[in-house]
Amino acid sequence: MVNNAGIYEFSPIEDITEQHFHKQFDLNVLGLILTSQQAVKHFDSAGGSIINISSIVSTLAPPNASIYSATKAAVDAITKSLAKELGPRHIRVNCINPGMVETEGTHTAGITESEGRQQTEAQTPLGRIGQPQDIAPAVVFLASSDSAWITGETLYITGGLR
Q1: Keywords of this protein's UniProt record, alphabetized (predicted)?
Q2: Which segments within 7-160 are labelled E, that is strand?
Q3: How far apart are CA 100 and CA 108, in angstroms?
Q4: Predicted structure pTM score
Q5: pLDDT value of residue 90
Q6: Which residues are catalytic?
Q7: Do residues 74 and 91 touch, judged by C-beta distance below 8 A?
Q8: Which of 136, 52, 54, 45 is nearest to 91 (CA)?
Q9: Which helix (H) or strand (E) holds 2?
Q10: What does the pLDDT look like over 123-132, one tens digit per residue?
Q11: Fewer C-beta within 10 Å: the chain N or C terminus?
Q12: CATH fold of 2-157
């Protein structure tokens, strides 16, 4: 199961509201927990794999991203905790923390045409933002039996940005 749903809204501290906070935490954190809770019911005794999609911002923590960064840091912590909790049931839980990736969401938010993209590309050793095909093989790997001895881990796929 892949927890890939998420939203992001960037705001300076002065503009953060309870609604802004709850909107992001409800989807990015509570949604992930409730989805994982339901998925666990469908794994048999052979177990399975839960892959959480977090973000480099959980540790990079850029300005105006305090709420979003906090939600993704929570995803990282939940991943480690659930790996320990669900390991005895043969359910592996891992996390992928991508850098900026060009998606429908980043286009809609205007991020892929922004100065922020240019800054990110300038700071990224590979000189570009990611594409979905940069992330998908890692998800497939973590979902497969090839990663049978991997749980509680975070894989950063960022083009070298850290």
Answers
A1: Oxidoreductase
A2: 48-53, 91-98, 154-157
A3: 14
A4: 0.95
A5: 98
A6: 68
A7: no
A8: 45
A9: strand 2-3
A10: 999 999 999 9
A11: C
A12: Rossmann fold (3.40.50)
